[in-house]
User: Fold Myotubularin related protein 7b from Cyprinus carpio.
Amino acid sequence: KVYVTFFQVENVRMIVTPRKSMVGTLYLSSTHTIFVENSEALKETWVLHSLVYNVERLPANSSGSPLIIRCKNFHVYRLLILQEKDCLDVLACLTRLSRPERYGELFCFSFNPNLDKELREKAWGFIDLKAEFSRMGIPRNLWHVTAANHEYRLCDTYPSELFVPKSASPAVIVGSAKFRSRGRLPVLSYFHRDTGASICRSSQPLSGFSARSSDDEQMLQAIMKSNPVSEFMYVVDTRPKLNAMANRAAGKGYENEDHYTNIKLQFIGIENIHVMRNSQQKLIDVGELAAPSMSDFLWGLENSGWLKHIKAVLDAGVFIAKAVAEEGVSVLVHCSDGWDRTAQACSVASVLLDPYYRTIKGLMVLIEKDWVSFGHKFSHRYAHLDGDPKEVSPVMDQFLECVWQLMQQFPCAFEFNERFLIQLHTHIYSCQYGNFICNCQKERRDLRLKERTHSLWPHLWENRAEYTNPLYRTGHSQTRGVLKPLTTAYYACILQKVQQITVDMKKKHYLWDKFRWVNLTYSLHVPDPKASSSVFQWSFRWKVVFKIKRWTFFGYVVWWLCDNGSVNQ
Assistant:
């Protein structure tokens, strides 16, 4: 094979495990680092530069200069390069290639899957959000599309077409936008046909300590009245209350219940992007520990706080879904700017409420609607360009984690398997397709992404056989209904249960105290004794030994069951 490369390095050793390594040639191209093994098999390892998180050079030793490549999808590659000069050259080149400074340098602008112009345009039309809002059954006598954001005049981080209450006048719409952070006024995200309740989203109000806006108050009143069967609505602030109160000093904050008629304010307590970034890094550090004990690993898992944060996001979705489906009450969701925690809460609630979003195409539509079109800052959050590291945070990672956690509780309710989630996670970071480039629709339009890049969704759809869950049943009660997951104290429950396990690895003898073994999935499901109708199921996956080298959705509590994955009950 011929590789178009900047340079190549011979006799590089790739260390797979402490006892296994491969010797080969390292090639650096404009888009990939390629390792080709010096054997008859000529095994190739391709690393996309967009996926590289950092490159670390360790002190040289008698064997050569070690180089560690850590990727955003949690792969770690360890190389040993004989000559120090070659190692420095690879380090400098790879560092620059993995940190593009302009959008034009991203892989999606050079990626060419051999589609003509007509097929490319058709691919971008695979997801139709107009058809999606039609599918929801929105009553046109209560809701309509406003022209207020035509050409992004009102809010440049929102889509150009917005569903708002039909009773809200243009003046109220504009006034409400002026009273909301970054102009992100309350608009419709999801309509529940069965109860007539809606999920709306916005950013925080610019209320400070005493400011108010009659237009914004009328907008919320219009949302509440768009649900004829309810006399009030919830306003869900996904932030911790102390954080929301601190924003008042900056002239922002949350709704004053004395000013807004018939609202009930509810704080959820999802932490900000900085806390989440640090939490994920702590968890990754735990995964890189060399031969940790079980207690060290579990302590590190708990200390990272990751599962606590996942629980908070799930709790937000559960509260919203319960309000909409059981109480028949509309909900307005916001955080600070309405593009991180708000997207998480709205999309988790939608997955719980609507079986369509638990299908392969439905999840694509949901991501396109609640994340892409409503201005989640993909390029900032996932470091597509070399920018401010404080803007980076695993917001979408957490949503995918939440979906995976729900899949463990309701294995028959989801059409897709975890491989589908892994692919989504990889492409959010890879920059191979244009869907997740930029931070909002206006930026994508200005960059002409639909003309210059390709869409991910048709590619995933064509390969949907690989992502289909064999347990999915269209007629199953889980598939048809609203999901009601259990999130109460699952984290503490697991840590207590782990202490009850006695394992004799030499004799291959396993004693599980009060556990239920499900041989079908090689998973250990721990029932919560307090649960009456539904059980929280937690998986101890086999063949994962204290490492997070690949995407594991962070929900796995790691335990080495056996060498070959075969365990007697």
Q: What stands out?
A: The chain is about 35% helix and 15% strand.
